[in-house]
């Protein structure tokens, strides 16, 4: 059974800092891995999707990497801003359409 | 498109009552997913449909939970009878296809409180 772990559970940084969020998964036979953002009281918004054959994806100040063999992914956020404050969730997809989510990292960027 | 629409946004009910949550997926999307989110267990998949047909309901916690998708634009998740441990945020999501490049689009959720 696939298990997804995100460390740390919470992170507080000053504005402008570069930061890394971590995600690990137990079964390396994945179809893709996604990073989502969740704002309080809102649904999830997809940030980046990395297919199993890819090593990384970039969107603006965000960069996500995938190392399938070690069961790890990182989300790098450059020059963090207060608007980046949210919970970030990692999700992996196996052979079906089902996503297995980590419990998320709650990020606070202080002005 | 308006995105995935869920109603109600908040529901407060008493133990033993029937609760019905509603979802309208994005038009043209073939897949619809129901999730439950709690602090303890995080986000868990309950059931998903492909072209209105239930494909996997292994995440449905027990017989008190049921889900239907009578047509491509509407789905319901029903809890009868409800219990306090059912209190959670319930999300509906949809995706266009099952392609490895397609993501799921989430609705705003329904916050359910069972007293």
Can you describe this structure?
With 111 residues, chain A is mainly β. Helix content of chain A is 0%, strand content 58%. Chain A has strands at 4-7, 10-14, 19-25, 32-38, 44-51, 56-59, 62-67, 72-77, 86-93, 99-101, 105-110. In chain A, the strands form 2 sheets. In chain A, strands 2, 4, 5, 9, 10 and 11 form a 6-stranded mixed beta sheet that branches. Chain A has a 5-stranded antiparallel beta sheet with strand order 1-3-8-7-6, with no helix packed on it. In chain A, strand 7 (62-67) and strand 8 (72-77) form a beta hairpin. The radius of gyration of chain A is 13 Å and the shape is globular. By secondary structure, chain B is mainly beta. Chain B is built from no helices and 11 strands. In chain B, the strands form 2 sheets. In chain B, strands 2, 4, 5, 6, 9, 10 and 11 form a 7-stranded mixed beta sheet that branches. In chain B, strand 4 and strand 5 (42-50) form a beta hairpin. The A-B interface holds A 31-32, 34, 36, 41-46, 49, 51-52, 89, 93, 96-104 and B 4, 31, 33, 42-45, 48, 50, 55-56, 91, 93, 95, 98, 100-101, 103-109.
Oligomeric status? heterodimer
User: What is the approximate shape of chain A?
Assistant: globular
Structural category of chain B: mainly beta
Strand portion of chain B, in percent? Answer: over 45%
Global geometry of chain B? globular
Topology:
The complex is a heterodimer of chains A (about 110) and B (about 120).
Chain A: E1 4-7, E2 10-14, E3 19-25, E4 32-38, E5 44-51, E6 56-59, E7 62-67, E8 72-77, E9 86-93, E10 99-101, E11 105-110
Parallel strand pairs in A: 2-11
Antiparallel strand pairs in A: 1-3, 3-8, 4-5, 4-9, 6-7, 7-8, 9-10, 9-11
Chain B: E1 5-7, E2 10-13, E3 19-24, E4 31-38, E5 42-50, E6 53-56, E7 65-71, E8 74-79, E9 88-95, E10 105-106, E11 110-114
Parallel strand pairs in B: 2-11
Antiparallel strand pairs in B: 1-3, 3-8, 4-5, 4-9, 5-6, 7-8, 9-10, 9-11
What is the structure about, briefly put?
The complex is a heterodimer of chains A (about 110) and B (about 120). Chain A is mostly beta strands and about 110 residues long.
């Amino acid at each position: 059974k696939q298990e997804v772990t995100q460390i740390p559970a919470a992170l507080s940084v000053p504005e402008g800092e570069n930061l890394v969020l971590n995600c690990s998964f137990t079964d390396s036979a994945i179809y893709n891995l996604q990073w989502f953002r969740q704002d309080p009281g809102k649904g999830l918004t997809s940030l980046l999707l990395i297919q199993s054959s890819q090593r990384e994806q970039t969107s603006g100040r965000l960069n996500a990497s995938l190392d399938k063999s070690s069961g790890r992914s990182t989300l790098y956020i450059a020059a963090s801003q207060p608007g980046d404050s949210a919970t970030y969730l990692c999700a992996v997809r196996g052979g079906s359409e089902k996503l297995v989510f980590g419990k998320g990292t709650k990020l606070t960027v202080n002005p | 498109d308006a995105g995935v629409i869920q109603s109600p946004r908040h529901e407060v009910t008493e133990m033993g009552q029937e609760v019905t949550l509603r979802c309208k997926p994005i038009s043209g999307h073939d897949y619809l997913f129901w999730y439950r989110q709690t602090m303890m267990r995080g986000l868990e998949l309950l059931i998903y449909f492909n072209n209105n047909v239930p494909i996997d309901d292994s995440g449905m916690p027990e017989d008190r939970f049921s889900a239907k998708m009578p047509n491509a634009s509407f789905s319901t998740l029903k809890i009868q009878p409800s219990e306090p441990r059912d209190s959670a945020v319930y999300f509906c999501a949809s995706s266009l296809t099952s392609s490895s490049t397609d993501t799921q689009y989430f609705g705003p959720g329904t916050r359910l409180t069972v007293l």
